[in-house]
Amino acid sequence: MRVHIARVKIKDYLCGGHSNVKDVEEMISLRQNFHSFKKSLLTAALAVVAINLAAQNATNSPYSQYGYGAMADQANGASVGMSGLSQGWREGNTVNFGNPASYAALDSLTFIFDAGVSGICTNFTEAGRKLNAYNSSFDYVIGAFRAFRRVGLAFGVMPYSNIGYSYSSETTIGTDVYTGNTETTTTNTYSGDGGIHQVFLGIGVDIIKTGRTNVSVGVNGSYVWGDYTKSVINSYSDVYVNTLSKYYLAEVNSYKVDAALQWSQQITKNDRVTLGATYTFGHDMKSDPYCRIVSYNSQTGVADTTDYHANRDLMMPTTIAAGFVWNHANRWRVGLDWKYEMWSKIDYPVYEVVDDVPYYTMQSGQFKDRHKFIVGGEYCHNERGRKWADRIRYRLGATYSTPYLKINGSDGPKEYGVSAGIGLPILNTYNNRSVLNVSASWTRIEAPGMITENTFRINLGLTFNERWFAKWQVE
After folding, report:
1. What are the residues facing 458 on neighbouring strands?
2. CA angle 464-467-470, nearest 5°?
3. The pTM is what?
């Protein structure tokens, strides 16, 4: 696409009642300064959001106590309504960070800034008992623009996983055989918080570009950081019994690399198919998982603390994703994704006591490979139409995931859900490209004999898309 040039002829400008060339220069300078101010403002906002993301807790799920926690969907406002469809998605007006090769298709005239928030309600069911929990989260913030011919850049911050839970159980461990009165009860309190986050910089490049074929490659490089604290506190009603507390802690400072490919082919005059794939490199993450045991003697008031460090770091799993999107006349876009996460090759630290000797070691068999399937699509009657209603985008999606957790030797919960969304165009005198994305989704997580979770999420995302790179030329 050619770069738009707004030409201002000095003689015409003066004939229009303006005094001199200096006025023209000042006008151009003000415009450029305004764009620079907006860029600086968005950069500052990105930094603030990154800090907030690191501090927030977006889940109440008891399942987040296992492994790395509840894995984040990593979908922006547009793709949330399609359950996260991404591998074959290739549009110039959205930032598809699920496949960085798509950055090469970004519109050369605009800067895109996208941010999203969610309100979450989860219903927990176990043995006939029900409980509701509510959360809110700042999901992501990303920006993107065309840097050079055939080269697009993107950057942003988003969660990788979330940990947040708190519950307790009570057990009677002693009863007077003569009176039947309870002597001692123990209360186990389980709690945890934290998570892993990522800030990324990505690039997408067209390596083949003809009238009917586009082949692009891309890569996202991410800094991954975070920490978590998981605790199990055993307290007793008998003041003469010691209290034992276990704390599982880790801090992550590492990286994540996603390499991607997209092949887009014009099949007929109105039909284009885009195939996409992404590969995430597995590796050891810089971390130091350890277990802290605190034994408190209520008679002496002395607490004894011992730390047990795992013998290896936590690991990032190797991940492969592939999919396609069929585009018909720029009205219908329908696609399918498959994602394969190789968790079975990942070890995880486990605390155990063997022959009265405590150990905290990395062990295999804690996870299993995870498969995720997504089907979704979008309909827009006329994305460049003059009528506001013609430019509304309607989205649907569905997803199914196998578990990556193993809990007490059994498979963890599987996950499935549906979503729907709508993209409302924002039209005014200076901007006709921005979109307010509103999505709703329902997700069910369940496993035999375990807690069932039904989660309802409302997502609001604003895709700010403005013509920033129109050049001014004075003749």
Report:
1. 119, 440
2. 160
3. 0.84
